[in-house]
C-alpha cells in the first residue's frame, strides 16, 4: 500500500505541475484530495489495518497529502498571477473610474483548521473520528462517566439544563461519546471525538461554548506508557519536532489514575529562558505548557458497557481531552479566547 501511496503522490504532482488553469487545478484537487479520493479513502481505512501497518501507512499518506496541498497552493498562486497578467494585458482600463479592490476569497476559521489538523494527526496514528449529540442525557454525560449524585459538575452553576426536560442538558464535554461508541462497538476501539461543548464560564480563557477533542483507546495490554507515547507523537505533530510530553497527577471522575499533560515550551525550547536571558512569557519560565487532561479509563466506566465486551478484568485503556481553542491560542499567540467568536474580520484575516 505504501507503494500505491507514493504512486498517487507522483501522479498527482505531475498532473498539478501540468495544470494550465485554475479550473483544471481545482478539478485535480477534488480528484486527488476530495472526500471520494483514493488517498482520502486510504486514510479513513487506517483504523482497519493491522497495528504494525498503521503507523507507516498513516504517516506516509499524511505526508503525501501535505505535500500535495502545498504544491496545489503554490501552483494556484502561479496560475492566478498568470491569469491576472493575461487579463491586465487584454482588458482596457478606464483610469477615470474609481478603484474597486478585489474582495479576498474566504478561508477556514482558525478553530476549524486546528480541529482538522488534530484529526489528521490522530487518523495517521490509527484512530477514527466519531461524533455525538450536543444535547445529551444526564446518564451519558455524568452517570456513565462515574459522576456520583451531588457531584459539583452536575450543579446548575456549571451546567446548562433543558428546563422542560431536566434529564437533558447541553453536554459539558465530548466524553459521553466514549460510552455511546462502546455500546455499539466491542473492543478494541481507537477513536477521537471533536465537537462543541457548553459550560457556564465566560472570561479571557473560558467561553460558554467552546470546542474539545476527546481521545479513547481500549484494548488488551494498553498501559499509561502507551498514553505517554501517543501524547508525545500528537504534540510533536501539532507544535513541532523536539517536543516532549509531561504528565502530572490529577483527578478526574472517569479516569484512574488521572493526569494532566504538558508540552515542552516551543518558544524557549523548554529552557524557560528566551534568547537574551529574559524569562519566557509563554511558559512563565517553567519550560512546560499545560495542554489537557488524561488518564486510564476507570473500571467503573467500563462496567457500564461490560456486556459489550469491556470487562475491566480483560481490557483497559486510556482517554485524553483538550480544548481546541487552547491549542490555537498557544500556537498563534491569541491572548483572549473570545476573539475567536467576535467575528472581527481584522482578527480572522491574520490567519489566512
Helices, strands, pairings?
Blueprint: H1 2-18, H2 22-33, H3 38-44, H4 51-90, H5 110-124, E1 128-129, E2 135-137, H6 138-141, E3 161-162, E4 165-170, H7 176-184, E5 189-198, E6 209-219, H8 224-239, E7 245-252, E8 255-264, E9 288-297, H9 299-303, E10 316-323, H10 324-332, H11 345-348
Parallel strand pairs: 1-5
Antiparallel strand pairs: 2-4, 3-4, 5-6, 6-10, 7-8, 8-9, 9-10
Helix pairs in contact: 1-4, 2-4, 4-5, 5-10
Could you explain how this protein is built, in words?
The chain is globular, with a radius of gyration of 23 Å. The strands form 2 sheets. A 7-stranded mixed sheet has the order 1-5-6-10-9-8-7, sandwiched between helices. A 3-stranded antiparallel sheet has the order 2-4-3. The chain starts with a helix and ends with a helix. It has 2 domains: 2-90; 110-348, BirA Bifunctional Protein, domain 2 (2-Layer Sandwich), CATH 3.30.930.10. With 352 residues, the protein is an alpha+beta fold. The mean pLDDT is 88. α1 (2-18) packs parallel to α4 (51-90), α4 runs antiparallel to α5 and α5 crosses α10. The protein contains 11 helices and 10 strands.
